[in-house]
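Researcher: I'm comparing several assemblies side by side, and this is the next one on my list. It has 526 residues spread over two chains. Same procedure as the others: predict the full complex and return the structure.
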Amino acid sequence: MAIKGVSLSVAQGELVSLIGANGAGKSTLLQAICGLLSRWKGEVLFQNVPIKGIDPPGIVRKGISMVPEGRLIFPPLSVMDNLKLGAYTMYRRKQHHQIAQDLEMVMTLFPVLKERIHQPAGTLSGGEQQMLAIGRSLMARPQLLLLDEPSMGLAPLLVDKILKTLVDLRENGLTILLVEQNATAALKIADRGYVLETGRMVLQGTAADLLADEEVKRAYLGKDYEQFYEGLNS
Amino acid sequence: MLQELLQYLFSGITNGAIYGVIAVGFSMLYSSTELINFAHGEFVMLGALGLVSLWGGLGIPLPVAFLLVVIGVAVVGFLFERLAIRTVRKPNPIVLVIITVGASIFLRGIGMLTWGKDAYSVPPFSDHDPIDLAGAKLLSQSIWIVGIALFFVILLHLFFKKTLTGKAMIACAISKKAAWLTGIPSERMVLLAFFLSTGMGAVAGIIIAPITMCSYDMGTMLGLKGFCAAMLGGLGSLWGSILGGFILGILESLGVGFFSSSMKDAIAFFLLLLILYVRPGGIIMAKDIKRF
């Protein structure tokens, strides 16, 4: 899981996609940002302030929320409780008014959660759980949202829905760093992209450039060699 | 026959409530930390002897003494976590369990140095006459014990179901990582779990004080009984622990009554073995036993 010499930046209001195959170190990178990783060399700046060494709850308080891989919702607790726990840091700051607003916002974003608000989160479908996981991290009012493989295990239609939500959130001013194996989908909605390969950043550029890049196409976009050789891929 | 049976039931329910409260302490700590605290019985002892000193010795009014002892013991539990558990560099479960065994011996030693080897007793909480039910006598202290036990368990239940902090504790028990990423400071939740768990231990010690002889070594057996009750009902389940306590208490008292009083302790351990063989998750076997 080693990554080395990797540098990455996300400007305010940007949606940046980090793509790469399984084991390339994408998740490790996210874990380092949100404080889950200990003993590593390097630095992380958020709004020009170093945040390395702060524990995950501290990072959340700084305004960075992560939607972890595998969603990690709290299955026995109700959808409502999951969302409320997402606002834990907000409750501790007594910002009840904002919490009510955010709850409303999440319900508008994912109406299905409103229908299931009293159900145990474990009874939701995979897509709904992913929506809940995103909703829960939004409840902390982040300025930067990190997502680790939100499309994993979901049907294409649901993937589209989730990614479209991210675009909407970006329109509303949220900064997003999206980690995905599903390179095409991730690059289509992104402003810029990075390609991580076995712990090194091999490519970076605007999403449009990366989508057009032959190397990326070959390795990540699922175009096979035959198409290249026969020139069918223009 | 009916009269006898009732009498045994009364005493079984009384003991059961105490085992239940002790079991809840085990369960709650296990839920949040996956740790079996073998020093838990010593906190029961501290509760009982604390009451002996504050109420019996210093004459502080009972409700005040009750509160002071519970808070005092919970603070000891808090320090226990801070000084003995948190400081472990490689906290793997075996090491932690052995630390709790060490803490148990340590606390028993402190108890012996403070209170000596004598056994103490305190009067019942109120001096009402026993109630006569079909010839069986129901002691007023039994009513106090069951009432106070249920009161605290319901309080805990409400805490876990209704308050954000309670839910945050459940969240930590489900997944520390998920809770962390959500912004919940899990170390503080663990600390709170120790505080509440040892506080419950003190409650058990306080309510049992009037019906038993209190001495520095009373905690070990009570702790083990509470552990059996927790395993019986389902470690990690609040109501399972209470249920386990009552079952253990009633079976124990029936066993003593109808067979032999030398059977008393054997019954608990026989039940423990039985449940481990037949239904290791406990009677209330939730899909995930690690939570309330």
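Model: For your comparison table: The beta strands of chain A are 15-19, 45-46, 49-50, 64-67, 144-148, 175-180, 192-197, 200-206.
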